[in-house]
Recover the amino acids of this structure.
């Protein structure tokens, strides 16, 4: 029996405001417990929420970036439930009238085709605090520093059909929010996380299966693993005669499995109603237009431009626009070198990416800056060094922080372009290998490569390959 | 409209209110009276009428500048807290 | 009862003049109030907390400011606050066991405004628990008694405010009104009460009952006193998104304006079969006074107004069920002993901390918001609320102010209406409409029935406080009902 997976994601992105959505407390991560929780965050008697305008503007910018409809009037509602990390006994969120509705993003599938993922809505809400359990026998400790941090919850349509698609979509949103500078995207700190709604159905069925919601996935890897586990679980369950129940599940990364969250199983009745402490949020056309003007070049636009202007493949353009910083770095290199954008792209995506990855650094923290890399590429282009030597130079630049020229000088890696010197090396090699020379001259053309290798060895790899080829051909011909 | 014992128990659970055995029938009786009384609303012709969530029409939400105005006053705010340890509010173990 | 020192003037206006002329100091005046409070407390139970020491310190500071030439119109005038307003460093109970140990770390905007104007806080006034009640019998701190007859209720929920001012324990008091909680006790205690337009007075620091209905106001002897005190407690507050950013007029400046040409509307629905005959008669006599003052009187109709009580008993409990969810025994307030688990912590802390009426309203509100009932109750009620508002708007197309009774009867006996919640709720039948529509409204004394005071209600269009105070003041210049003091407290 063939099964089809249906996935929708609810992504929670913390907005990068300085202060909270309804209070003047700081949103900085990692402060001592409850030192960034003011009376509003604590839900003290008598206090009232006042909306942070920057959070509204960030949500609108997101909506514009996904081609969505911006509600001229959106409404905050209360979602009522009791939980220790929810100080007021309700979460201020948007329910019936969200600020952003009906947008979409495109993802690229493995076969290179594009797929549109619908975004039902994105709404503003406040984050909850945290319950801590470690080192507290029999009790939990509540830290409300995170309570009231602004979030946008981005709700997709159930448009994804595999864990891979879900990850591609989540990465796309992740890229976008960082381009817009509305979220730092830090998944370890929980700034960007998602709930996945997963169901399966028999291929060709027109109705969706019963879905399970996997809560609080905070890495791309977990999203993929949790969805794959859940899909297997559901298929096995149905095939063995069972039924999927609609429930909330938690992914346990240590065990690599999802399990039912009993505490949230109790029938939820959130009793949403408009928050009487807040008035409808109006976003007029002039506000929308002024915010539209602040949008940066978005990833898809930038990638298309890289293809057009720099002659890159779609794949390369996609990789180089994965973050605004990487795209900027690449364009800096191209601008300084002045030509050979494809070669620049290879270096950024190749050695640079490998070293960043090895040392777990962001492009902004690179030990070889864009100007330095451009210096290196320039030396390849002007034939000072070969591409192969350049790899050695790059590594030295990374370790020492020196520029390409300094490394080339120090290590004496400058390419030999002096005809006399190359000829001398060729003569020496020919003299040392009379047998191979005779064989070559009697028609074994394949030995040409052997002579190239020997001369390169003799020159420490520094002979200019084109010159070497030419001179060697002449000399071998006799 | 009449509310049963089960109705009252369900509402009390949703509202996180412990009721004594003696209280349940009292609330069942008084809430039944209230809902019978409130049932008068049914007769009002409200087709096409927008629900009124705010007493002042036409106003919209004012936006606050994104500024940090609050400083750490944890010690003061936690003076009212029944149980605190190491700056954390303590509750019985939260099971997820 | 020990000998009762009398206050040197019957009104805030008079006391302010005496202080300004140096006839007495704020410390002397404050001492007199504190003595009256001490004497009155056993009989009336109007106060939850008396802040003797800080009151005398504030009075001394007021006297010093005056000596230094920095006195304002209200410098040194003692007042008391309803215990729903948060007061920094002072117990703030909201009449509940839940908050019986709660010391607020901050001042409500109203408290701050009146402090900045130089007033001296005498203490915190008893009230129905979380302002839910019409008789002040739901307070955790025991019922307040009516100074005109201690077997009667003072009305509620601002019963402590009304009793304290009626017995002249405090010259004036703050109060709040969600469905009549200022006007009804003012009527039952024979004094003046004003509920301003929704959004006129900041709700910041006023412990919420029903956020879309709650509004802070005053209980005073006279309309003039209300005009003097309303300014400093009004105005835009950046901490309250629902407070309105429009200038606060000088309410005292227009008190004496002529009422010639004023059109008063008598709401037909206010003169229903529930209205006590004598109370109705007093209201009609008041109408005659207005006609003598040059006002034109006409009848208007608000046909949906009879639905205001059922509408209110959906909307207010719905909001309260959510507003009171924060009282969970974790960060402040009552916490049960040795909770077995989280659910037990919540259920017992709340079950023990809240009184019967509060629990009833929380359950009513929880129910009307719950799945399957939201449309039938909550949305329906908000639609009827729209109709009621439209009725008022139409009426104000024909007249400047509406006039009618404040309450259907005079003060009733303590314990008399506790069997059926509906009987109690119907006390607010004439007052609730103004809350649903966000309108400013007042109650002023207009005579007696059976030896107990009767209140006359004025309702105006949004932000018409100045005109309403003007109309009340002119009536009070023609009458002296507001100056009558129960003999025991004279």
């Amino acid at each position: 029996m063939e099964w089809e997976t249906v996935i929708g994601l609810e992504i929670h992105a913390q907005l990068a405001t300085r202060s909270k959505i309804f209070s003047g407390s700081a949103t900085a991560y990692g402060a001592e417990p409850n030192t960034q929780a003011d009376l509003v965050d604590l839900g003290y008697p008598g206090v009232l929420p006042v909306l942070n305008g920057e959070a509204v503007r960030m949500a609108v910018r997101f909506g514009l970036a996904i081609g969505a409809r911006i509600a001229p009037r959106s409404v905050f509602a209360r979602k009522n439930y009791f939980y220790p990390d929810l100080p007021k006994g309700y979460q201020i969120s948007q329910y019936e009238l969200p600020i952003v509705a009906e947008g979409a993003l495109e993802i690229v599938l493995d076969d290179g085709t594009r797929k549109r993922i619908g975004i039902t809505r994105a709404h503003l809400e406040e984050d909850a605090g945290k319950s801590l359990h470690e080192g507290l026998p029999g009790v939990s400790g509540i830290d409300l520093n995170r309570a009231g941090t602004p979030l946008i919850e981005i709700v997709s349509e159930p448009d994804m059909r595999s864990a891979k698609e879900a990850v591609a979509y989540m990465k796309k949103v992740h890229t976008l929010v960082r381009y817009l500078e509305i979220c730092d995207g830090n998944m370890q700190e929980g700034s960007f996380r998602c709930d996945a709604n997963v169901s399966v159905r028999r291929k060709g069925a027109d109705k969706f299966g019963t879905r399970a919601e996997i809560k609080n996935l905070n890495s791309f890897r977990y999203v993929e693993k949790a969805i794959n586990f859940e899909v297997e679980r559901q298929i096995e369950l149905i095939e063995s005669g069972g039924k999927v129940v609609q429930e909330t599940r938690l992914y346990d990364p240590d065990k690599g499995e999802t399990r039912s969250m009993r505490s949230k199983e109790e029938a939820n009745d959130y009793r949403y109603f408009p928050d009487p402490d807040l008035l409808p949020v109006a976003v007029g056309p002039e506000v929308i237009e002024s915010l539209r003007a602040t949008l940066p070049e978005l990833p898809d636009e930038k990638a298309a431009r890289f293809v057009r202007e720099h002659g890159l493949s779609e794949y390369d353009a996609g990789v180089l626009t994965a973050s605004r910083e990487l795209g900027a770095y690449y364009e800096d290199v191209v601008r300084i070198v002045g030509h050979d954008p494809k070669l620049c792209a290879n270096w950024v995506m190749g050695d640079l990416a490998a070293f960043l990855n090895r040392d777990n650094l962001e492009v902004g923290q690179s030990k070889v800056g864009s100007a330095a890399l451009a210096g290196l590429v320039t030396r390849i282009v002007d034939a000072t060094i070969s591409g192969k030597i350049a790899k050695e130079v790059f590594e030295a630049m990374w370790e020492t922080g020196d520029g390409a020229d300094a490394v080339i000088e120090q290590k004496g890696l400058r390419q030999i372009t002096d005809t006399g010197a190359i000829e001398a090396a060729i003569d020496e090699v020919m003299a040392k290998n009379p047998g191979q020379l005779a064989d070559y001259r009697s028609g074994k053309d394949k030995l040409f490569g052997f002579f190239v290798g020997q001369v390169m060895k003799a020159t420490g790899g520094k002979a200019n390959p084109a010159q070497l080829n030419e001179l060697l051909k002449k000399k071998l011909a006799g | 409209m009449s509310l049963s014992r089960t109705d009252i128990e369900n509402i009390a659970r949703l509202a996180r209110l412990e009721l004594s055995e003696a209280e349940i029938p009292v609330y069942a009786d008084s809430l039944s009276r209230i809902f019978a009384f409130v049932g008068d609303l049914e007769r009002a012709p409200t087709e096409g009428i927008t629900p009124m969530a705010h007493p002042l029409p036409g106003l919209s939400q004012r936006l606050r500048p994104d500024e940090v105005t609050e400083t750490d006053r944890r010690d003061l705010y936690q003076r009212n807290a029944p149980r605190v340890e190491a700056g954390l509010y303590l509750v019985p173990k939260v099971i997820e | 009862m020990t000998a009762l020192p009398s206050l040197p003037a019957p009104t805030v206006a008079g006391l302010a003049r005496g202080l300004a002329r140096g006839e007495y100091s704020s410390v002397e005046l404050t001492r007199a109030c504190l003595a009256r409070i001490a004497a009155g407390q056993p009989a009336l139970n109007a106060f939850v907390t008396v802040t003797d020491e800080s009151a005398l310190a504030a009075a001394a500071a007021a006297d010093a400011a005056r000596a230094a030439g920095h006195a304002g119109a209200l410098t040194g005038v003692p007042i008391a606050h309803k215990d729903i307003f948060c007061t920094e460093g002072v117990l703030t109970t909201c009449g509940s066991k839940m908050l019986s140990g709660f010391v607020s770390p901050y001042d409500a905007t109203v408290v701050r405004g009146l402090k900045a104007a130089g007033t001296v806080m005498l203490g915190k006034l008893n009230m129905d628990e979380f302002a839910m009640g019409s008789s002040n019998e739901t307070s955790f701190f025991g019922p307040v008694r009516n100074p005109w007859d201690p077997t009667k209720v003072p009305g509620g929920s601002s019963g402590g405010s009304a009793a304290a001012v009626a017995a002249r324990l405090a010259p004036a008091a703050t109060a709040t009104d969600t469905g009549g909680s200022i006007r009804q006790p003012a009527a039952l205690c024979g004094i003046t009460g004003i509920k301003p337009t929704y959004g006129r007075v900041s709700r910041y620091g006023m412990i919420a009952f029903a956020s879309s209905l709650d509004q802070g106001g005053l209980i005073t002897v006279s309309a003039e006193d209300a005009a003097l005190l309303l300014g400093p407690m009004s105005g835009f507050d950046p901490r309250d998104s629902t407070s309105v950013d429009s200038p606060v007029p000088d309410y005292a400046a227009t008190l004496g304006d002529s009422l010639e040409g004023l059109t008063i509307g008598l709401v037909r629905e206010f003169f229903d079969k529930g209205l006590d005959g004598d109370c109705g008669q007093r209201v009609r006599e008041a109408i005659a006074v207005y006609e003598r003052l040059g006002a034109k009187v006409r009848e208007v109709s608000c046909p949906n107004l009879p639905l205001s009580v059922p509408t209110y008993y959906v909307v207010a409990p719905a909001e309260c069920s959510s507003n009171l969810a924060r009282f969970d025994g974790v960060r402040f307030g009552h916490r049960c002993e040795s909770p077995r688990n989280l659910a037990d912590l919540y259920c017992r802390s709340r079950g023990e901390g809240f009184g019967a009426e509060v629990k009833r309203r929380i359950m009513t509100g929880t129910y009307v918001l719950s799945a399957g009932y939201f449309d039938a109750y909550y949305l329906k009620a908000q639609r009827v609320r729209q109709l009621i508002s439209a009725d008022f708007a139409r009426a104000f197309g024909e007249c400047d102010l509406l006039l009618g009774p404040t309450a259907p009867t005079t003060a009733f006996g303590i314990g008399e209406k506790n069997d059926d919640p509906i009987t109690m709720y119907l006390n607010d039948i004439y007052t609730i409409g103004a809350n649903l529509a966000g309108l400013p409204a007042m109650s002023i004394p207009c005579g007696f029935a059976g030896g107990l005071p009767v209140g006359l209600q004025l309702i105006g269009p949004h932000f018409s406080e100045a005109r309403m105070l003007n109309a009340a003041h002119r009536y009070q210049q023609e009458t002296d009902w507001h100056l009558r003091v129960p003999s025991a407290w004279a």
